[in-house]
Design a protein that fits this description.
248 residues, 7-stranded parallel β-sheet, alpha/beta, 8 helices, two-stranded antiparallel ribbon, 9 strands
């Protein structure tokens, strides 16, 4: 019972560290994932780009836009979003990004462009964009991502709905998804978590759904997930069943 092409299992954070890179490559080879997204503002970018170019198993590559950690690629001058070392401060970005001035919005947009441009300049075949800590669904950011998706003709990750029990937040995320779908930049009909997908399987096996994972090798060399270790382990068990492989 193979998974059809409608299922996208994306590994976020490619380029974050050597351990993450090794784990994502391993997961591609084992058939646990069929998509990933690369962070372009890390010290490991050059070797990660080489890793992608040397391994044709790494397909469906996106850019994982990052305003949360590491240094900006552009000459970003708004210190209220940076720490003393000039690196992104996620807590500040999340706190102060609800009402951005046009000038600051433009600075973020230029940084967004620069992160995509860096991947393209490395001759990487980019298919989509998503973001570190889901920042692309924040009120002041979502439209910037839609603008970038249009500019580069890329697809954009939807907001996750299934575990949002706050009605206002649910309706807001539904609105974000409608904006992305209106512009035909979505690459799945739903963005789901592992727990929800496995709970509903096999009713959802033919649906166009994106799942997100964060593989890495821990200090003992074991494959795990930095966000949802339990769900990732269940996913591996699920996809490792006889004749059960991702079709890519």
């Amino acid at each position: 019972m193979p998974i059809n092409k409608g299922l996208i299992v994306n590994a976020d954070d490619l380029g974050l560290s050597k351990s993450v890179n090794e784990a994502i490559l391993f997961c591609y080879k084992k058939g646990y994932i069929n998509s990933s997204s690369i962070i372009t503002n890390t010290p490991f970018f050059d070797e990660t780009a080489q890793l992608v170019q040397n391994n044709n198993v790494i397909i469906n590559l996106g850019v994982h836009i990052n305003f949360a950690e590491g240094k900006p690629i552009t000459d970003f001058k708004y210190n209220e979003y940076l720490n003393n070392a000039g690196e992104w401060n996620w807590e500040k970005t999340r706190k102060y990004s609800n009402a951005l001035s046009p000038e600051i919005k433009n600075a973020f947009l230029l940084e967004l462009y620069a992160q995509i441009d860096k991947a393209l300049a490395a001759n990487l075949n980019i298919t989509h964009i998503d973001s570190h800590y889901h920042l692309h669904i924040l009120p002041s950011f979502y439209n910037l991502f839609i603008i970038a998706a249009k500019k580069y003709n890329l697809k954009l990750r939807l907001a996750q709905l299934s575990h949002e029990h706050n009605v206002i937040k649910y309706l807001y995320r539904l609105y974000i998804n409608s904006k992305i779908k209106l512009n035909n930049h979505h690459y799945s009909k739903k963005f789901e978590n592992l727990e929800e997908y496995l709970k509903l399987f096999p009713k959802n096996k033919d649906q166009n759904i994106e799942l997100m994972v964060h593989p890495l090798f821990d200090d003992t060399g074991n494959l795990t997930d930095s966000v949802d270790a339990k769900g990732f382990n269940e996913w591996i068990n699920h996809v490792s069943q006889d004749a059960y492989k991702l079709i890519v």
